[in-house]
Amino acid sequence: MKKIFIILKREYYSRVKKKSFLLTTILVPLVIMAFYAAIIFISLDENPERQKIAVIDEGKLFDGVIETDSSLTTFILVENETESSFVKKYKEQGFQSFLYIPAFQLDQPGKFIFHSPSAASITTLNSVEKMANKALRNKRLSAMGISAE
Asked: Model pTM greater than 0.70?
């Protein structure tokens, strides 16, 4: 037992008492936490500006009325436009981005296309997704004769 204590004592003094061991034991977790904090800070773009998003609805998903829960995102239906023509002029008309909904079947909706000059924030994408999912759910319910309430 005495020999084990001598070996442990020697290992402690030769390895643990070194400055490099102490620095890495303290600094590595701090650096990892700093990286995570930076990633979270960058990804959460809490932009208080009001987003104005155009919607081209060729699939007749909204029937002229867009319901949204977001107070910072305004969705505006654009009539008599196609996706290819509107790509060039949506910024000039004051929209930050636009959502194109092609014609689709209710049982197999196609891909909705979101156009933006840069990567949209998580909150913007989340509000667009919620709005489209809610409208699709309501459309399916009404097609089956079920009230949305």
From this structure: no
